[in-house]
Amino acid sequence: MDEPQVVKIIVVGESYAGKTSLLQQYCFNEFDHNHSATIGCDFTLKWITKNGTKLKLQIWDVAGQERFQNLSKMFIRQAKGCLIMCDITNKKSLEAALSWRNVVKDIADEVPIFLIQNKTDLLQGEREEYQTEEYLNQFAQQHNFTRSYQISVKLNDKVDLIFYELVESMIEKGVIKLEDSIIKSSFVIKNDNNDRNKAKKKECC
After folding, report:
1. Which GO terms describe its molecular function (predicted)?
2. How far is 151 from 158, CA to CA, in rounded Å?
3. Band of pLDDT at residue 193, cut at 50, 70 and 90
């Protein structure tokens, strides 16, 4: 049995942005209203198969408190992808995402970084400008985030999607490689060449 490829993903952001809830929802389909802030760092595992390649997602929940910042930097090393979480009801949470982006970029510059606004289920009535999808997309482009999404962890809205897209982005950037895809690509090219040779022989006859 082939060992799965370990893929380290970090989830960072201010406290109470929904990082722990995101992991619980994605990995266990659970949502707990009453959990305390993460102390230090913790991780959860999720096994997936992508194009025939087994991947073990090691998803790290990194504490948002300032006193854990040096510890957080240590856990960012060797990450293949990053989700930066914000609370859509708190503008300062979005602004703090820039500080986290800079921290991640300094340590793991090549990895895709997604900007995630959580808690859309709490929005009522007309949205503030910073709560609109258009504003988030412009903000993300301006500050060089790979992609941006508005989600609700509580309602399980777009939770699976952001991890699916993050894995896709990691493959596109080459930070993880699918060996089976490489083999299949080579096989297709080889067959294509054989077909061309056969066609030439038929033409010669």
Report:
1. GTP binding; GTPase activity
2. 6
3. very low
User: 192: buried, middle or exposed (CB in 10 Å: 19+, 13-18, 0-12)?
Assistant: exposed
pLDDT at 199 over 80: no
Name the CA radius of gyration of the chain, rounded. Answer: 21
Cα–Cα distance for residue pair 115/146, rounded to 1 Å: 8
3-state SS track over the chain: CCCCEEEEEEEEECCCCCHHHHHHHHHHCCCCCCCCCCCCEEEEEEEEEECCEEEEEEEEEECCCHHHHHHHHHHHCCCCEEEEEEECCCHHHHHHHHHHHHHHHHHCCCCCEEEEEECHHHCCCCCCHHHCHHHHHHHHHHCCCCEEEECECCCCECHHHHHHHHHHHHHHHCCCCCHHHHHHHHHHHHHHHHHHHHHHHHHHC
Provide the whole-model pTM.
0.82
Segment 140-164 shows an average pLDDT of 98
The answer to whether domain 5-176 has CATH 1.10.10.60 is: no
Would you state the pLDDT for residue 64?
53
Quote the tokens at residue 153. Answer: 């962890």
Compute the distance between CA of residue 87 and CA of residue 145 in angstroms, rounded to an integer. 17
pLDDT tens, residue by residue, 135-144? 999 999 999 9
